[in-house]
Fold this protein.
Amino acid sequence: MGKAALRWRIGQHEDAEALREHPAIREAARMLREGKLVAFPTETVYGLGADARSEEAVSRIFTAKGRPGDNPLIVHIGHVSRLQDLVAELPTKGELLVRRFWPGPLTLVLPHKGTVAPKVTAGLDTVGVRMPSHPVALALLQESGLPVAAPSANRSGRPSPTEADHVWEDLGGEIDGLLDAGPTGVGLESTVVDVTGSVPLLLRPGGVTLEELRETVGEVRVDPALEGDAHPPRSPGMKYRHYAPKGEMWLVEGSGEALVHRIRELADHARKAGRRVGILTTEENRFRYKADRVVACGRRAEPESVARDLYRALREMDRAGVDYILAETFPAEGLFRSVMNRLYKAAGGRVFRADDQCPKGSSS
Ligand code: TXA
Ligand code: MG
C-alpha cells in the first residue's frame, strides 16, 4: 500500500443511526466499497473488514493477517434482512437463534448461495454470518451497504485485539483504516453454531453461552473437537493453535485455596530452576503470588470481567518477557467455558491436573 493507515477516533456511546452521518464512518464505508481493508470494533473483538463479494479484497485479509487460506471468514451484516442475500434458507432453529441473539455475539453457519467470494468460505458450501451489536460496526455495515468479511484483526497466532492499539501493533502497516472506539465489551469472539443439521452444533464457544443456546432451541451438540477429543474439528479455525505466548504456558487445575497453593508451589519450583515466571490470575488472588510478573484478568466472581480482560492480559504476559506462565483455571460453565477454551489453546493443551504429584512439567 505504501501509505500509512488512517486512524479515526470515535466516541463510544452513540447510536448506530446517528453514527452513519459521522465523517469517519462515511470515509471508512467508502474505503470498504473501494476494496480496501478497514479494521473496526465489534462488541466481541476488533475485526479486519473487507468487501465479502470481492475476491481481491478478501485475499488482502489473508495476506495482512498471515492467515491460512483454508480457514473461512465470518460475514458481517448490518440488518437481519440482508441474510437472504447470502443464504438460501434459514432453518427454524436458526431463526429462533437470530431472534434471540442478533444483533450480538453469535455466528450462524448456513448453506450459502454463492454470492460471497469463494475465498471467504474457503471453498465450503456453508458460510458463517453474524450481525454485530456494536454501534460503530452497525453504522459501518449499514453505511457501506456491503456484506463485510471480517476475521479478528490480529496477526495470525496472536490474541484477538480488544483495543485499537492491539490492531495497530499487529497490523498498522497492512491496513488502510482503523476505527478506534476504545476497548470492546465482550472480549472473546462470537459463539459459532452450525445450524445446517437437525440438531445445532456448537463449533466455537464465545460470547453467547451453551446454556443460553439450549434455553432457546433445546438440544445443542458440542463439536467433539472442543472436548479435547481426537476428531478433526469441523470449524477449520479450531485446529490452529490460536495464540502461542512466547513463554511456555501451563494451566493449573483446582479451585479455592488448593489452586493458590499449587500455583505457589509450581512457581517456586520453576523460579529455583532459573525460569522467569509469569502468573495469570484474577483480582481476588493477585496479591497472593510472588513471581517475575503477576497479571490479573478480571474478577473470578464476574465471568464477564475475565472474558473482557483475557486477551489484554495475555498480551501483557508477552511484553513482560516471562518464559514460563502458570494460569489459574475456571469451572468450564457459562462464559467460563469460552474462557477455558481460549486458555487451553493458548497453553497448547498443557495442564497440571489437580492430582499430579510433582511439578514435572516445570523442568521439562
Ligand atoms: O467475534 C467474532 O466472531 C470476530 C469479530 C470480528 O466478528 N471474528 C472472528 O473471526 O473471530 P475469526 O476469523 O477470527 O474466526 C472465525 C471462526 C473460525 O474458527 C472459522 O473457522 C469459523 O469461524 N468459521 C467461519 N466460517 C465457517 C464455516 N462456514 N464453517 C465452519 N466454521 C466457520
Ligand atoms: Mg481469530
In short: The chain is about 30% helix and 20% strand. The first strand starts at residue 6 and ends at 9. Confidence is low (pLDDT under 50) at residues 360-364.
